[in-house]
Amino acid sequence: MNLAMMLRHAVREGGANPDFNTQLGNIIEQCQGANMPKASIKAAMKGADKSKASSYALYEARGPGGSSLLIEILTDNNTRSHQEIKHILNKNGGALSDGARHSFQWKGVVVLVGEVPLDRALGLAIEPRTVSLLLFQFLCDVTSLRSVREALQALGVQTLSAGPEFVACSSVQLSDSELEAASKLLELLNDCHDVIRVYDNIQPLN
């Protein structure tokens, strides 16, 4: 995920004050959750005037095995990016397809590491999901992301990341061959210069 690029775009679109620019505020939350240094955040925001004008786009696609993909991009050339994404999809078992967005919800996501006092965390009216034995993921409304992150940190647990994300409503299980094809496709998409992030609803291996 290119957080610096996202910061520059948000500043160009709505100004450098996160109190009045909700998009910028959300991205700063992501940067802080990813432990991005304050100096790097400020440098990226100051670089907005020097960077090329870019536009945000969300591509909906289908992947191997009927999986759904959402591809976030920032680009200074929409035609180039569209052609590149379409080419990669078509060559690797995917295709641009309307409707994939319905497989996801836009949520605030906070990932914590270590032991989490679930009884107290549930009092924050958020949805917990176990990622692994040491990682816990909490979902909340995007509008309450900052307050939820701060409340969880007040419980004495370490925040690994925090930010708004597309979260799959349900997952699809792929065969071994489909999973291999999907992994290759996701790798190629993530390697694209204009791609910020790729979301999928593929059920992870146990």
UniProtKB/TrEMBL annotation:
Q: Where is the signal peptide?
A: none
InterPro entries, per database record? Integrase-like_N, TACO1_YebC-like_2nd/3rd_dom, TACO1_YebC_N, Transcrip_reg_TACO1-like, Transcrip_reg_TACO1-like_dom3, YebC-like
User: Which cellular component, as a GO term, is one annotated location?
Assistant: mitochondrion
Record domain TACO1/YebC-like second and third: where: 58-202
> Which stretches make up the TACO1/YebC-like N-terminal domain?
3-49
Indicate the family of this protein.
Belongs to the TACO1 family.
Q: What is this protein called?
A: Translational activator of cytochrome c oxidase 1
